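Exercise (ungraded).
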Amino acid sequence: ILSYPRHPVLKKRDDFEDVLEERRRSSDLRYALRCYTPTLYKGLVPCKVSVLKSIVLQSDHLQCVIKQVSSESGDSTECVAEEASLILDEMAHRMQLSTVRFFVFTLSKAFKRLFRSVCVNEEGIQRLQQAVQEHPVVLLPSHRSYMDFLMMSYLLYMFDLPLPVIAAGMDFMSMKFIGEMLRMSGAFFIRRSFGGDKLYWAVFSEYVKTMLRKGYAPIEFFLEGTRSRTCKSLTPKTGLLNIVMEPFFKGELFDVSLVPVSISYERVLEESLYARELLGVPKPKESTSGLLKARRVLSEDYGSMHVYFGHPVSVRSLAEGKIKRSQYNLLPRYIPQKPSVDTHEFLNDAAFRLVRIQEENMVLKPWVLIATLLLQNPDGMDLSSLTEQTDWLRHLALAFGAFLDWPDHEACSEVISCSLALHRRLLSVSAGHVQLSVTDAPQVETTPEEAVFQRAVVVLSCASYRNQILHVFLRPALLAVAMQSANSSRKDDIYNCFNFLRNMFSNEFILCPGDSVQDFEEACYLLMKRGVLQVLEHEIVMSASGQSTLAFLCSVLDPFLQGYQVVCRYLCEETNENLTEKEFIPAVRSFCFVSLSSDLQKNALAALLRLKAVRKVKV
Amino acid sequence: LHHQKSWQEIMKWNGWGYSDSRFLFNKKGQAEFTGKRYRLSGLILPSLKDWFEGTFGANLQHKSPATPTVNLSAVAPPNLNEPFIEDLKAAGVAASHDPEDRVFRAHGHCLHEIFALREGRIGRVPDMVVWPSCHSDVEKIVELACKHNVCLIPYGGGTSVSSALECPHEETRSIVSLDTSQMNRILWIDEKNLTAHVEAGIIGQDLERQLNEHGYCTGHEPDSMEFSSLGGWVATRASGMKKNIYGNIEDLVVHIKMVTPRGVIEKSCLGPRMSTGPDIHHFILGSEGTLGVVTEVTMKIRPIPEYQKYGSVVFPNFQQGVACLREVARQRCAPASIRLMDNEQFQFGHALKPQVSSIFTSFLDGLKKFYITKFKGFDPHHLCVATLLFEGDRGKVLQHEKQVYDIAAKFGGLAAGEDNGQRGYMLTFVIAYLRDLGMDYYVIGESFETSVPWDRVLDLCRNVKERIVRECKERGVQFPPLSTCRVTQTYDAGACVYFYFAFNYRGLSDPVHVYEQVEHAAREEILANGGSLSHHHGVGKLRKEWMKESVSGVGLGMLKSVKEYVDPQNIFGNRNLL
């Protein structure tokens, strides 16, 4: 199921329908109050929130951990049990239909103001409806904005699907009123880090598993763990994935359906906020008053939004031949076990593949192509050549299997001017010349640093759009760079180079571990089909007409190569022996402004650590 | 030998049991069971047709009849070892290479074996059959087999469901089926120690009947006891329905005598328990004919119980039923037998109700149904039934009965009468006949079993049943299969679970292959859910591939080294187990 076709271009995707259209025609209030009768899981054991809580607290698993913790800490079991109960209170959702209805009403209003359209693939919804009845479902949306989970619940309500319970970060809890509201619409809250806390982990995992086993509600969480500030998919986390798969591994459930959901925005609400964060301006703390201040965002046009519900992935089929379930035969199932090495590898692999499905089903808007080109031309471009190159890029992207939402029957120039208009905050157009720039009224006194900062915000905002399409070009681009730097046309040499680059960038991009050969072949295939390369038995030769494509692909990766170079140069030239991790990012930032994004710096350091070029010494 | 011939004549050659007993749909389309041997014999079963058509999507118009007689020309000529035959003749052991005798002993009752016979396909069959009449005959045969390098396959009742009797294709030597049926005497009964010394070829029902004449029984009643033999029980580690009182075969044997190529293996005394290293009985129990022939067994016997009482309990659902059985096991108060059928099997049992004799009975049935479903609110699509059998002296039985019903009540169980219980146990004996009926109408099926810890019973049952349904669908089976289970034995630490699985194979080009793939998948599912490879059917050749996984490489190596020592020439070459 997860082995996506070798020829990505041929992938069939569903059609979209705008769900706001109906909302614009009829009463939101009546809609929010309408009769909601979701399709339910056939094995559902209905239970109330309070009963759920006592099932979790009484579970053999939790009781076992309570005893362990008690004997290790010396506290009485009652005391530890009380602590567990408090953890659960802090964590648990309290879903209430009335709160959901309130959200449906307000979100209807908000979405209509924010978005021109919200497009959903209805076939995906139908598949989900089917899946929900058969097996417990886990929803795995991509995470680019706070809007994501609101939108998910909103859509599920809209299509009479059971409302999900959502794993949310504890930061929301601090938004007093909103936090409670979210809780009542199905969010449950987990601490960001609880590494060694056995009891917390036990409560948390048992809570999720109980809901899954009872078929209580679909579980929703973000594989990427947090919002991606760069619009690039993040390296997935496997903790929660393990929790939702374990009931299958241990035979408690026949199967679990994982549904990857790709949510894409024509304009991300947090656009400039993210850029500032990447530049080291701390993330504003989630607070209700902050939210109210953010009302300003309501007055802007965010274009359209696309939600694509992917095919449900059966955990059973995923694990077929990879997980030996009988490994759980010899230990009572309530005793927690760390995942074995094999299991861990499987989880990691599955997580990567799921994120790749998310990526592939992510709708790309024309602006993404334009942003890519504008970033490669810092001095701007003439409208005519922008139009021409965008059209060229569009065909290249389509040939590589991009899920491009290009309006039918509209002239290319028309499409471009619409996109430019929507993103006018990031660029200036004068006399047929388009350039990235700050269009807010220039501050009276700007220091050179501030000017650079302002420009960097624009560049990083723009980069976040280019990043959305990177997964389409990534493999061919790695090949293009490999060919350039291999200084050889021998296939082996190029592959080695490709492999090195792939390895280097595996913290930066979603590259499934172990798929090196497959990725290489895919890149060769795509470029060969495009007439850029000829792949012979032992050699790879560039075609005469392939120069421009290869040059483009190389420059796609260029910012990343440069960024990593800067990090390396900094580490070689500037550091004394003892650099602390905390100092690293500001230090690199002041070392060179080219690589300003903290995301890139972190990834580069992680890669160097992984490749053992740099050593981490605990002090 | 005379007895042997007649036995073969009253048995089906291509199906289960006696030739005169079979299910059929009469001209009116009603099901009936022929013959006079069973309580159900001669009765009309009015609801079976609807159940059959509804469950399998089968149609009485679509028949798939069996080849009426064995096609002897399809039997390959025997590969005879003449010097062996001559020596055998000199030793005075009865033998035959008549094709019918050979075909009869070439199979057990696996689906693929019976299916092939019904189609008139005959594979490799033994080249000859020998009938030893006592232990020393067996010694002679084995000695001669070693001398002439002949392959021996012991044959008891022929009820194997593990491909254990199948002749290995790769065997090039002459294959001799060693039929133990003539060794069927009770040699002595020791009332002081309550033991009986019996020849291993005796069939279960004969053993029980003959002991009954003396006022005793073994209490060992596997579902196949009408046809299976004592030697077979030992060779497969059989389990009896009433093991809660009498124990399984390993608890019942006091002494075993087995002839191997190395000589005779036996213990020197009849002590009830010994600490003399690993128990050599356990090399013999479950050896599945790979080491030698069990010739004589000393078994425990018991006085016939004074009183027997059947019973049944209806539960609102399977979970409650399992919870009740678990509690019964925890309190160690299981009756002689306690079995829990799931809802599908409960409905199946209902379909086998004979025509009621009076309006009054039918009125009573209606009333009971009303009480359970309407008054007690049991959902007829979820409720399930436990059948019970109590044995012992009357006072204790009644007391015991109350204890069990009290436990059942705690799990929502309602006593549902002796009749239902008794019918449940009767079904055990006729269910094998039903498969032949199905096969007349494009329905094939089989049962298989496992044992599993208590905490996994529910998960295993659900997952295996669902796996069967899913695998059938994926393999193009047009109509959802019957996939049902029951818990048939309780133990301190777990239970034995039995699955029935059958489907309509119309439209499939190779139904047996599909069947085998599904059964294979079901076994994988069992193992993945913490179930054992087998509780009592054994491994044979059907489940060999999982042996290493089941007993570890070292474990398998131990068994192999025993085989290597006992039978270096692989005279007992049925290739089961290892």
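Further reading is listed at the end of the chapter. For now, observe: Chain B is about 40% helix and 20% strand. The first helix of chain B runs from residue 2 to 10.
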